[in-house]
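2024-03-11 09:14:02 DEBUG pipeline.ingest accepted 1 chain
2024-03-11 09:14:02 DEBUG pipeline.ingest length=322
2024-03-11 09:14:03 DEBUG pipeline.predict start
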Amino acid sequence: MSINELRSITTFVRTVELGSLSKAAAAQNISPQAASKALGQLEKYLGVRLFHRTTRSMSLTEEGQRFLEAAQPALFGLQQALQGAKKTREDIAGPLRIVGPRTVLQPIIGPVLDEYCRLYPEVQPDVQLDDRIGNWVEDRVDVGFRLGHAPQEGLIARRLFPLQLIICAAPSYLRKYGCPRNLADLGAHRCSAFRPPNRGHIVPWRVRVGETMQDQHVTPAFCTNDEAFELHAVLAGEVIGQLAAPTAASLIRAGRLVPLLLEHMSDVHNLYLYYGSRTAQPARVRAFIDLAVDRLTDNAEFVLTKEELAQINARGMGALCP
């Protein structure tokens, strides 16, 4: 049904209910001329007259009465459905589908999601973490997170913070194996590597060399597809790893990890929050977007300043790698 047909049927039913075409027009906030045109279009479409008209009154024809009996309940049901949808849009309740990469995302959105659930207990979050890039529309996503560059066209993206990839090791590793002084030294060290699920190849480290970024291939002493396992191996002093700042920042600040080779730190990619519309969003989606943007944008918990990294590096290297 086109919107013109819906207006025509609404005009017809309201005219019967209110007793005049002018009152039906006023109830719909349209002009009497527009109401008369809508009613005329409906009669032309049906091929019957719905009203007997005189200059002073209108009365239903037999065809009009039969059409009213069929259309009025259906129109009422449709109006109820529309009102229900609008009410759902404003209620902070219902399902909320969130997607993002398994890598690094859990420590980032965990606290935000906890706070959101406390504020809006009637919402049922459905969080799907997957390192693959899915189809936003087919997956029926309300809100997504993505690492790297801005998401595909047609989506609205909000940059949250830069993603630093920091080469680091535990103090126990540096005491046992020494400190790499440059990228070439990594060939003589025990390095960890990440192998994504459903892919055979090992992901090279991404490092800065001067003004450009390049792949740094390492021979892994430890390989996994799980970031938590990799972090455990690095903390245990078994390997050097390249870890994302949201995972490593608090451990670096606590002295449990020492940042290394800072001039080669990667920070060209960002974490983005993305969604499909600025206006046509249920309230539960708008509320999560607002909370996530407020809590995560340039959050110092997940980003280490160059000065902070340099100070921690100097302390660690001075004590462990004289």
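2024-03-11 09:14:41 DEBUG pipeline.report Residues 165-267+303-320 form a domain with the D-Maltodextrin-Binding Protein; domain 2 fold (CATH 3.40.190.10).
2024-03-11 09:14:41 DEBUG pipeline.predict end
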